[in-house]
Design a protein that fits this description.
Length: 219
């Protein structure tokens, strides 16, 4: 409330203003600071979630011990299999796969589906086939997501897991890539490993025999 005094001539003169108005003016800077702090916290949490936390994604324990590539001939419009990469778990815990993919795939080469060859597969790996599916060459095929790769030290773990791609090119030409990637996690820790296994496919027009001299890609 305001305070009034009486002047010498008998008139009342106000002294100061309402106390509540003064307190409101003092609160405004404090509320502004609190709002800015809250905004900074929200932005920080959102960035943490988008970037997957403060831990960087590393290659982790999955890998291959070799750099290799292959060259194959194929007809346009015909699906075929590629299974050169084999990933081995050098860690002490199972690695759970999330997805596999080509790194920098060429335009025109399509990935129709992906699979993994499990521990009971017939061959350790089979570089490529001229058709898909091809159960003679690619066996014990399992979905990628959720597949558990046992440690190399576990029974059968030394065989690793074969990464299998069903591919197709619809137009004649040469298509090549030199790496594949596998995304996976061990416990709560996520990883992404790039394996230096590549492919060059020389695609012939429909009705024409594919070449037998397609040069291998060199990762």
């Amino acid at each position: 409330m305001s305070t009034r005094v009486e002047s010498a001539d008998g008139e009342e003169v106000p002294v100061g203003g309402p106390a509540s108005s003064s307190r409101s003016r003092r609160r405004r800077p404090l509320l502004l600071v609190l709002a800015l702090m809250l905004l900074a916290i929200v932005v920080g949490v959102a960035a943490w979630l988008l970037l997957g936390g403060d831990e960087p994604v590393t290659p982790g324990p999955l890998g291959t011990g070799e750099r290799s590539g292959v060259g194959v001939g194929q007809r346009a419009g015909v699906p075929f299999g590629y299974g050169l990469p084999v990933a081995v778990n050098r860690g002490s815990e199972p690695a759970v796969l999330d997805r596999i993919e080509l790194v920098d795939p060429p335009a025109g080469l399509r990935v129709l589906e992906t699979r993994v060859g499990g521990l009971e597969r017939k061959y350790l790996w089979y570089a490529s086939s001229t058709r898909w599916p091809d159960p003679e060459r690619f066996s014990d095929l399992q979905p990628v997501r959720g597949f558990r790769v046992p440690p190399q030290s576990a029974p059968g773990g030394e065989r690793g897991v074969e990464l299998v791609f069903a591919l197709q090119a619809d137009k004649p030409g040469r298509y090549a890539f030199d790496r594949v990637a596998v995304a996976y996690h061990v416990g709560d820790r996520r990883h992404r490993a790039e394996l230096t296994n590549g492919l060059r496919v020389c695609v012939a027009p429909p009705g024409q025999a594919p070449t037998r001299n397609c040069p291998a890609v060199r990762p």
